[in-house]
């Protein structure tokens, strides 16, 4: 009986380890065998290798029943029937029974590699060719996929079937949370950083100070520069590349993320124009760092330079380096330290970029005019004190001209110009392309053409702005809607305007004067201009408020 | 950085103005208040004046245009703020256009103007350095080529304006880092100047040697419109990629602008042309010239508001057709995203104002006002383009920029199918922007074509195409 048992045992191994299997052979333990052998399907056949994940074609495939898989305390001491979760624990326990030597040793036959299949028939791992190599692994897999999720995290109510998963989650849940401005929550730092680098919402909302929980302590930043998953699965370069590429973005984000929570100095007050603010903050982070960031940078730079040096990476880093190094080489002397790639590659040895430590305030020497310029393009409000006369960019001016033409009524201007302009060959065409209110323009156009000379002087007279100051201010106050305007439809000639009587002031008076000159009007018109000059005199004083 | 006050140029001019004013009769002294004009008001003035002048020029009233130009000249300056500079170049273009009305005068004035080839090359390099658009385009192009050429053993790249070695050096490096080894690379560069191509050849050969890639560079000295596609020496079995950066639009120049006429031919011409392309390969060019163009007499102005497609220029069609004959795996087209090909002068001027305002703003944000390089770019690159758009007509007007939504049907008709640009390319491009000193630029993805924007205004479009075979 024992021999047969031995044969059976030898040829069809149980799910338990050989040692205890041996013990079971010798001590006929019906209870155990009834538990296990009755329900085990033993397949000692060798399966052909088909998919990766099954490295050993000679391995024995073992299929266990769900009950066996989930059973705890599978290792039972034959002497006292005490159950153990682990075989090693059982062995330790058995030592205490002072067994004779023969019974203690494992059989010395070579241990075959065993692979396990999932008992769930619908699972992909049910097929022996997709078996998993680890018993613990198959147990966990079975629990995770086909088991009931018994463990629940209290903070985020995420459920887990495997207790170890649950414990691992509990360690990190809520301890470090990264929230991007677009609302996405990340538990992993690397995915957060990658996301932040390219988040569009972030770019638009850079005005607000970030309430996200970011580790600003130096130790954390030093440690956690794990390689982020490659941004796109399609990138051909293999993993050696990702340290350099991945490292660029986290460092950038470290700087920007550390930058943004800080309150900006007066030079950069909220709300600065959106994208300009973000880009300028990134720019300034490049120039100003904290000591913690600097140390992180140092570790990053060494690693990145070494990897980028050795790999000749084919993607963005090289492009960035080759293109940006050429940019930094040319005449932008004040922005030399701001060149990111130059910092990366040049600072491999040193550990501190030579900039102000801990000064996250945007000091104007470092605060190159570029954010200034990009910022001023969006609003005429004076955010940047360093520039003596914050000029509007040309695009903003164009938008404003469109606004002005659309909103204000410029009859004197219109008349002045209308007199001068002959009816073009195709008035419809001109106005339809250039007027925002195309329905009314043809009439205005034609009516303006018919206006008499005399109205010019009256127009100029009207041009004396009693209401000039207010309308001029009004003119300047329209910028709030500028940003959304499409510059394509511009009502430059103010053709879409009503033929109201009020004149918006000195500006139009100037244009009317041009109209006057175009008609070679008498000098009588020019005295009318001088009071307009007074209007203009007022404008410098008004300028600070407008701008 | 030197920051000149915008008003400084103005403060010097009132004296000048006074002297001018005293000369011209009846003008009195209307301009003292010009002195107090802030830069913003001056900018708005300039805009209004420019358009008034444009209208005059379009209408042919020279006298009035002259007066406008004179007014503008008091305010504009190529060394002032952005709007002043723009106005300066636009008025120069308008004046040039007016002058063409007297051909003898125009020729006499322009006969002694010499253009130094070296300067032109330099200006292109400056534009490449100081504005990120070309760099971004190159990065995106390279990434698209990399992705399209995965697994290919022989890669042949045709560069329609080969002047910047860095572009291909990066690609060579990327190709050499491929896991299954670099392919055999051939680059055919087209350019009008021999020196540029020599320089390219030298740099690229050097780089290929360093990277140990089998490499061959074929220079072709030719204007794009005279390019003979057969001379590109494309061998069968090669994977061809074509890179066209700001070049294709020059092929849209046609001999004479015809007025737009509705024609039943127009409505079905897309299909007919497609079939024609298939069945009649040899005589396509002539066919188009004779039949389609004359029969439908469609306006070559593709900026017309008609939703029906308008006949393409014969040069463009034959060129695209010839290119398709090479069955390119990839063709990356970078073009200006603005409509400067309108039939109507005022339309063109309006569009050009917006476009170049953005470009001038880009320069303003990166370079100081006193910078000579900036002046060079503005004058010799942008100024020339503006002059071409405004003052030239017919075949001379080569700067026929068009928006992407006009390019797409044109390219599709020629037998190209759009290839979406990958997210990876976008990441590369954004990384470039972040790592360099470029602030205020954005890249947007629109239907898997990229728009390179300055502050939300798209300025350049990058799209990728491949030859799509009909059954």
From TrEMBL, chain A:
SUPFAM superfamilies: beta-beta-alpha zinc fingers. The keyword Methyltransferase does not apply. Residues 227-242 have a biased composition (Pro residues). The keyword Lipid biosynthesis does not apply. Residues 431-448 have a biased composition (Low complexity). It comes from the Eukaryota. Residues 209-248, 419-448 are annotated as: Disordered. Transmembrane segments: none annotated. Pfam families: C2CH-3rd_BIRD-IDD, C2CH-4th_BIRD-IDD, C2H2-2nd_BIRD-IDD, zf-met. This is Protein indeterminate-domain 1-like isoform X2.
From TrEMBL, chain B:
A motif (VHIID) lies at residues 155-159. A motif (LXXLL motif) lies at residues 248-252. Pfam families: GRAS. Residues 391-466 are annotated as: SAW. Residues 199-231 are annotated as: Leucine repeat II (LRII). Keywords: Transcription, Transcription regulation. InterPro entries: TF_GRAS (IPR005202). Residues 124-189 are annotated as: VHIID. It comes from the Eukaryota. Belongs to the GRAS family. This is Scarecrow-like protein 3 isoform X2. It comes from Sesamum indicum.
């Amino acid at each position: 009986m024992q021999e047969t048992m031995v044969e059976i045992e030898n040829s069809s191994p149980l799910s338990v380890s050989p040692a205890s299997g041996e013990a079971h052979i010798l001590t006929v333990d019906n209870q155990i065998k009834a538990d296990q052998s009755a329900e085990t399907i033993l397949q000692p056949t060798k399966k052909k290798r088909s998919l990766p994940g099954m490295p050993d074609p000679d391995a024995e495939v073992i299929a266990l029943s769900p009950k066996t898989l989930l059973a705890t305390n599978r290792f039972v001491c034959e002497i006292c029937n005490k159950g153990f979760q682990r075989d090693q624990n059982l062995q330790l326990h058995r030592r205490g029974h002072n067994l004779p030597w023969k019974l203690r040793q494992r059989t010395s036959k070579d241990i075959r590699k065993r692979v396990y299949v999932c008992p769930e028939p619908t699972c992909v791992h049910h097929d022996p060719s997709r078996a998993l190599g680890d018993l613990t692994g198959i147990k966990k897999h079975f629990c995770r996929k086909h088991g009931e999720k018994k463990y629940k995290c209290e903070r985020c109510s995420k459920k887990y079937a495997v207790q170890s998963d649950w414990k691992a989650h509990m360690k990190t849940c809520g301890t470090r949370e990264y929230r991007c401005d677009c609302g996405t929550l990340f538990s992993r730092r690397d995915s957060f950083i990658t996301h932040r680098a390219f988040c569009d919402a972030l770019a638009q909302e850079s005005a607000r100070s970030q309430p996200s929980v970011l580790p600003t302590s130096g130790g954390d930043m030093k440690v956690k520069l794990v390689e982020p998953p490659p941004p796109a699965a399609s990138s051909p370069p293999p993993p050696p590349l990702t340290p350099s590429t991945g490292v660029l973005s986290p460092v950038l984000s470290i700087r920007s993320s550390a930058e943004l929570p800080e309150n900006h100095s007066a030079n950069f007050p909220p709300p600065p124009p959106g994208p300009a603010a973000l880009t300028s903050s990134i720019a300034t982070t490049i120039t100003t760092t904290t000591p913690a960031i600097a140390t992180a940078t140092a570790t990053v730079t060494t690693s990145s330079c070494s990897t980028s040096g050795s790999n000749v990476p084919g993607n963005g880093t090289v492009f960035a380096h080759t293109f940006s190094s050429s940019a930094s080489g040319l005449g932008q002397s004040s922005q030399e330290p701001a060149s990111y790639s130059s910092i990366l590659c040049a600072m491999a040895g040193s550990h501190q970029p030579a900039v102000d430590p801990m000064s996250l305030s945007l000091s104007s020497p470092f605060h190159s005019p570029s954010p200034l310029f990009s910022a001023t393009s969006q609003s005429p409000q004076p955010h940047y004190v360093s520039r003596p006369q914050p000029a509007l960019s040309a695009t903003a001016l164009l938008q404003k001209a469109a606004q002005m033409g659309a909103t204000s009524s410029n009859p004197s201007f219109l008349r002045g110009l209308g007199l001068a302009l002959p009816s073009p060959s195709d008035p419809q065409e001109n106005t339809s392309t250039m007027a925002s209110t195309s329905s009314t323009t043809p009439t205005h156009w034609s009516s303006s053409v018919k206006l008499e000379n005399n109205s010019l002087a009256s127009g100029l007279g009207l041009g004396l702005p009693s209401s000039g100051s207010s309308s001029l201010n009004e003119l300047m106050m329209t910028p709030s809607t500028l940003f959304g305007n499409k510059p394509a439809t511009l009502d430059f000639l103010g053709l879409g305007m009503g033929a109201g009587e009020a004149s918006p002031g000195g500006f139009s008076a100037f244009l009317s004067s041009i109209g006057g000159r175009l008609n070679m009007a008498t000098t009588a018109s020019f005295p009318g201009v001088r009071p307009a000059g007074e209007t203009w005199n007022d404008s410098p004083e008004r300028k600070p408020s407008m701008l | 950085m030197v920051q000149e006050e915008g008003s400084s140029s103005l403060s010097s001019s009132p004296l000048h103005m006074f002297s001018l004013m005293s000369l011209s009769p009846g003008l009195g002294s209307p301009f003292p208040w010009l002195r107090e004009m802030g830069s913003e008001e001056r900018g708005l003035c300039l805009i209004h004046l420019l358009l008034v002048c444009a209208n005059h020029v379009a209408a042919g009233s020279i006298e009035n245009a002259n007066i406008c130009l004179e007014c503008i000249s008091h305010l504009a300056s190529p060394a002032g703020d952005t709007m002043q500079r723009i106005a300066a170049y636009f008025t120069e273009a308008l004046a040039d256009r007016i002058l063409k009305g007297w051909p003898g005068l125009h020729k006499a004035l322009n006969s002694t103007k010499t253009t130094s080839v070296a300067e032109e090359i330099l200006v292109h390099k400056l534009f490449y350095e100081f504005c990120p658009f070309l760099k971004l385009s190159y990065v995106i192009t390279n990434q698209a080529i990399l992705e399209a050429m995965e697994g290919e053993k022989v890669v042949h790249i045709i560069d329609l304006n080969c002047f910047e070695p860095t572009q291909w050096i990066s690609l060579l490096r990327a190709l050499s880092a491929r896991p299954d080894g670099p392919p055999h690379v051939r680059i055919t560069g087209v350019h009008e100047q021999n020196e540029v191509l020599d320089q390219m050849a030298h740099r690229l050969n050097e780089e290929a040697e360093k990277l140990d890639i089998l490499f061959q560079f074929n220079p072709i000295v030719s204007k794009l419109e005279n390019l003979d596609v057969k001379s590109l020496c494309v061998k069968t079995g090669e994977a061809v990629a074509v890179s066209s950066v700001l070049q294709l639009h020059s092929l849209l120049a046609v001999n004479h602008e015809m007025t737009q006429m509705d024609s039943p031919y127009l409505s079905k011409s897309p299909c007919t042309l497609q079939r024609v392309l298939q069945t009649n390969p040899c005589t396509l060019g002539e066919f188009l010239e004779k039949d389609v163009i004359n029969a439908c007499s469609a306006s070559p102005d593709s900026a017309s508001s008609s939703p029906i497609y308008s006949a393409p220029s014969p040069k463009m069609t034959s060129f695209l057709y010839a290119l398709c004959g090479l069955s390119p795996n990839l063709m990356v087209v970078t073009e200006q995203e603005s409509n400067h090909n309108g039939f109507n002068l005022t339309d063109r001027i309006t569009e050009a104002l917006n476009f170049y305002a953005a470009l001038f703003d880009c320069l303003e944000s990166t370079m100081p006002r006193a910078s000579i390089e900036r002046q060079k770019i503005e004058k010799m690159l942008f100024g020339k383009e503006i002059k071409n758009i405004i003052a030239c007509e017919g075949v001379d007007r080569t700067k026929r920029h068009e928006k992407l939504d006009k390019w797409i049907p044109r390219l599709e008709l020629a037998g190209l199918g759009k290839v979406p640009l990958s997210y990876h390319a976008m990441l590369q491009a954004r990384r470039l922007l972040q790592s360099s000193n470029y602030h205020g630029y954005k890249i947007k993805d629109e239907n898997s074509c990229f728009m390179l924007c300055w502050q939300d205004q798209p300025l350049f479009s990058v799209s990728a195409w491949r030859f799509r075979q009909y059954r």
